[in-house]
Design a protein that fits this description.
By secondary structure, the protein is of the alpha+beta class. It has a domain of 59 residues: Multidrug-efflux Transporter Regulator, Chain: A, Domain 2. Helix content is 68%, strand content 13%. The chain has five helices and three strands, in the order βααββααα. α1 packs across α2. It starts with a strand and ends with a helix.
């Protein structure tokens, strides 16, 4: 049976809870085998899921399979993104409230200015004359 190489180094590090450097050490020591796959930005190292399962069992990771660990990792990532978006949403709602308040103030000021009759040129000249002379 052919091995299925479908786990990236980053995913493997998240599954095992170790650094990417540690995964590279496992590869160099022969604990994990690798293949190169042409990716978007050049060659990408892919790891075997079954070997990672064996390594997790050896490290005492419990009874979770690699696939389950990937799902948990993606859940945590999505949860983090959700919380960040929720904070951003709350900040935007606060800004929206401030903008609405300012808009209402300007709207009432504009309506009061519309209600005023414009002063004639002679009235404005008389007011300027009395202030400045």
């Amino acid at each position: 049976m052919a091995k299925d190489y479908n786990i990236t180094i980053r995913e493997a590090s998240e599954i095992l809870g170790v650094s990417i450097t540690t995964i590279r050490r496992y590869i160099r020591s022969g604990q994990l085998s690798k293949v190169y796959v042409q990716g978007k930005y050049g060659n990408t190292i892919m790891l075997c899921k079954e070997e990672l399962d064996q390594l997790t069992k050896g490290r005492g990771q419990g009874s979770l399979t690699t696939e389950q660990m990937i799902k948990v990792g993606r859940y945590e990532e999505l949860k983090t993104q959700y919380e960040a978006l929720k904070r951003e949403h709350e900040a935007l709602l606060f800004r929206l409230g401030a903008i609405e308040t300012k808009y209402k103030e300007l709207e009432s000021e504009a309506s009061s200015l519309r209600d005023q009759k414009p002063k004639s040129l002679w009235t404005r000249i008389r007011e300027w004359w009395t202030k400045n002379i």
